[in-house]
Recover the amino acids of this structure.
C-alpha cells in the first residue's frame, strides 16, 4: 500500500530533492513517515549508529525520537535541531497537510565539534556498553561528519526554504505556528514585567494602553499595535489567571473598540462589521487561550489593513508608506517635502494623490495624527500643555490650542 505522504507529494520529486541536497552538503538524508519508518534514504548510513542502536532499551527507539522531534518542529513552525540518544546531531523538517502530520525530512547524523572520549563516556554512563563496543564506537565516531554550528543553522534554514513549498497548506500551518509561538513569548515577557511590578487582581486595568492600541491601529502601525495587544493580553492573563471566559470578555471589548477605530481611520463600515461579526462567530468556537490570543492578533492586522482598502489600488502601497512615515515622524518638524521624498515623488504630485486617496490634505492629516497623540497624553499624563504641544510636533502652545479646538471642539485644558 502506498504511504499516505505520496498521495500529497510525488515520490520522484521528493527523491530528486533529497538527492540534490545530500550531494551538495554531504549529509545523510532520509524521508520518514508519521511513524518514523524510513521511506527514502540518501547517503551512507553511519556505522556508529548501527553499532549503537542495538543497545537501546526495548521501550525506546530512534523512530520514536525522530517523531517526537518532528512534532516539536511542527510546534515551532520551522526546522528543529536536536541531539539523539548517542549525542549525535540531526535536523528535522516536518511535512504537514491540513493540520495532519505526514512525516519529515531528517538530516544527520553529524557532530558540531570533533569527537572525543567524553562522547563515549557519556554513552557508557547511560547505557553500560561493553569495552569492545565502546572501542568500536570510538573508532567509528571519526567517520561522522563535523559541521560548525553557524553552518548547521544555515542548513536548517535551507531545509525550510527547500521543503516548505512542497505542501502549500503545510507551509501556511507552519507560519501560523511560528506566529503563535512568537506571540506567546511576547505575552510571557509581559507577564514577567507585571510580576516584577507587583501587579495584582486589585490593580486597575491599563486603559491608557488600550487607547494607545487604538491610536496605533488608526495610524496603520501593525507592528506597534501587535506589541501593545500582547502587553494587554499579558496583563489580563496575569491579573485574572488563565480564565478563558474572562479573556473572551476582554477580547469582545477590544474588538468593539478596534472596529470603531478602524472606521474612524477610514475603513468601510460594512467591511469592518463583517470582520467583527466573523471574529465574534469564531470566538464562540474557541476553547484554547493560545488560539484566542492569536485570533485577536489576526483581527488587529485585518482591521489595520482594511483602513487602506478604500485607497485606489494604484496608490495603495505608496500612500500606506507615507502614512506610516507620518506616524513615526509626526513629533518632528516633518514637511510635505520630507514625506514626498520618502516615497520618491514630486511634492506637488504627492500632495494631489494624498488628498485624493486619504480624503485629507497632508497638513490636515498630520494635524489629526498630532491631535490624537496629544489627546492620549492629556488623558494619561500630567505633562504641561506646552510640553505636550512640543512633544506632538507643534511649534507653540497658542497654535496647538487653536488646532486642538478645531478638531475636538474643546481647548486642551477643557479636554483634560
Amino acid at each position: 500500500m502506498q504511504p499516505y505522504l505520496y498521495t500529497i507529494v510525488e515520490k520522484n520529486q521528493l527523491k530528486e530533492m533529497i538527492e540534490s541536497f545530500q550531494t551538495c552538503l554531504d549529509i545523510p538524508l532520509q524521508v520518514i513517515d508519521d511513524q518514523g519508518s524510513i521511506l527514502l534514504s540518501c547517503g551512507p548510513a553511519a556505522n556508529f549508529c548501527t553499532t549503537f542502536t542495538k543497545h537501546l532499551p526495548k521501550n525506546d527507539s530512534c523512530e520514536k525520537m525522530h517523531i517526537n522531534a518532528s512534532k516539536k518542529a511542527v510546534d515551532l513552525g520551522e526546522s528543529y535541531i536536536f541531539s539523539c540518544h548517542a549525542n549525535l546531531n540531526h535536523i528535522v523538517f516536518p511535512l504537514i497537510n491540513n493540520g495532519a502530520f505526514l512525516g519529515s525530512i531528517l538530516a544527520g547524523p553529524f557532530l558540531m565539534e570533533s569527537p572525543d572520549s567524553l562522547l563515549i563516556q557519556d554513552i557508557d554512563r547511560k547505557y553500560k556498553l561493553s569495552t569492545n563496543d565502546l572501542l568500536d564506537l570510538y573508532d567509528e565516531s571519526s567517520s561522522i561528519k563535523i559541521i560548525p554550528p553557524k553552518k548547521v543553522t544555515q542548513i536548517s534554514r535551507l531545509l525550510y526554504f527547500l521543503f516548505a513549498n512542497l505542501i502549500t497548506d503545510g507551509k501556511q500551518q507552519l507560519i501560523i505556528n511560528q506566529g503563535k509561538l512568537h506571540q506567546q513569548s511576547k505575552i510571557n515577557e509581559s507577564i514577567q514585567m507585571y510580576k516584577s511590578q507587583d501587579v495584582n487582581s486589585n490593580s486597575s486595568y491599563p486603559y491608557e494602553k488600550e487607547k494607545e492600541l487604538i491610536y496605533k491601529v488608526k495610524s496603520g502601525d501593525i507592528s506597534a499595535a501587535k506589541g501593545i495587544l500582547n502587553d494587554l493580553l499579558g496583563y489580563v492573563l496575569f491579573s485574572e489567571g488563565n480564565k478563558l471566559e474572562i479573556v473572551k470578555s476582554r477580547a469582545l471589548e477590544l474588538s468593539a473598540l478596534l472596529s470603531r477605530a478602524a472606521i474612524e481611520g477610514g475603513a468601510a463600515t460594512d467591511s469592518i462589521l463583517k470582520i467583527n461579526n466573523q471574529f465574534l462567530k469564531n470566538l464562540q468556537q474557541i476553547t484554547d487561550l493560545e488560539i484566542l490570543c492569536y485570533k485577536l492578533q489576526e483581527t488587529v492586522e485585518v482591521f489595520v489593513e482594511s483602513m487602506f482598502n478604500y485607497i485606489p489600488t494604484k496608490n495603495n502601497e505608496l500612500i500606506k508608506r507615507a502614512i506610516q512615515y507620518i506616524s513615526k515622524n509626526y513629533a518632528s518638524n516633518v514637511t510635505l517635502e520630507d514625506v514626498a521624498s520618502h516615497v520618491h515623488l514630486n511634492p506637488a504630485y504627492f500632495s494631489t494623490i494624498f488628498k485624493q486617496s486619504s480624503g485629507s490634505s497632508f497638513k490636515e492629516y498630520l494635524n489629526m495624527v498630532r491631535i490624537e497623540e496629544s489627546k492620549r497624553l492629556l488623558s494619561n499624563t500630567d505633562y504641561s500643555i506646552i510640553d505636550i504641544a512640543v512633544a506632538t510636533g507643534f511649534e507653540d502652545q497658542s497654535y496647538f490650542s487653536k488646532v486642538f479646538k478645531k478638531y475636538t471642539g474643546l481647548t486642551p485644558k477643557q479636554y483634560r
In short: Residues 171 and 302 are 21 Å apart (CA to CA). The longest helix spans residues 168-196. The chain has three domains: 5-166, 174-306, 313-415. The mean pLDDT is 84.
